[in-house]
Amino acid sequence: SQKEGETYKILSGVTNISGWAFNKCYTLKNIEIPSTVTNIGEGAFYYCSNLINIELPNSLTSISSQIFSDCNSLANITIPNGVTRIGSRAFYKCNSLKAIQFPNSVTTIESYAFSKCTEITNIQISEGISAIGSDAFYGCKGPIICNTNSVAHKYAENEKIGYRLLDNEPSNYGTDYKINDEETRDISKNQ
């Protein structure tokens, strides 16, 4: 059933939000989720095109597939520490997302998870990520910020996405990065 109104508060004590629960709730702008929720099903907020504010509870261990697909107004999201998996198309076409940072707990980012998020300009990926699915960041501006020879570094090179290396920083220079097959050095630290 469709939920009406701009703000929806889920009652404390609820542990599960079913898949597709808020599917196509075009008027929904804010949702409050209590810390008792441990699971949010696939596509739960699919195409909530006006959703701008949501805080995910720290009790989540997985971000389900298509959970925020086509949420065009969602400008930022904090992935809770403890989440290990970002599902396929979880944030597909979230065109207002500007940056994403993954906690150390995340090990898997599935295919198309952030595909066509055209405004993401900083994607910081920790060393703990062991798998990134195909086209996970297709269409993102980048760069992917990662360590040398990490899964993220290899992914960025294979997918031809700009990247910046965190661990390749000589004492007198900035970090190395590669965009459009050109090696560049940022020397802004010396100026």
Can you walk through the features of this model?
The structure is a single chain. The chain has 191 residues and is mainly beta. Helices cover 5% and strands 21% of the residues. The protein is built from 1 helix and 15 strands. The protein has one helix spanning 151-159; strands at residues 7-9, 16-17, 30-32, 39-40, 53-54, 62-63, 85-86, 99-101, 108-109, 122-124, 131-132, 144-146, 163-165, 176-179, 182-185. The strands form 4 sheets. It has a 6-stranded mixed sheet, covered by helices on one side. The chain has a 4-stranded parallel sheet with strand order 6-7-9-11, with helices on one face. β12, α1 (151-159) and β13 (163-165) form a beta-alpha-beta unit. The longest helix is centred in the last third of the chain and has 9 residues, at 151-159.
Offer a quick outline of the entry.
By secondary structure, the chain is mainly beta. The protein is 5% helix and 21% strand.
What Rg is obtained from the alpha carbons, in whole angstroms? Answer: 18 Å
Spans of at least 5 consecutive residues whose pLDDT stays below 50 are 170-176, 184-191
Euclidean distance between termini CA atoms: 58 Å
Largest sheet report = 6 strands, mixed
Q: State the secondary-structure class.
A: mainly beta
Strand content: 15-25%
The average pLDDT value, as a whole number, equals 87
**Major beta sheet, strand line-up:** 8-10-12-13-14-15
Q: Using the alpha-carbon principal axes, give the shape.
A: globular
State the helical fraction.
under 10%
Number of strands: 15
Number of helices: 1
| SSE string, helices as H and strands as E | EEEEEEEEEEEEHEEE
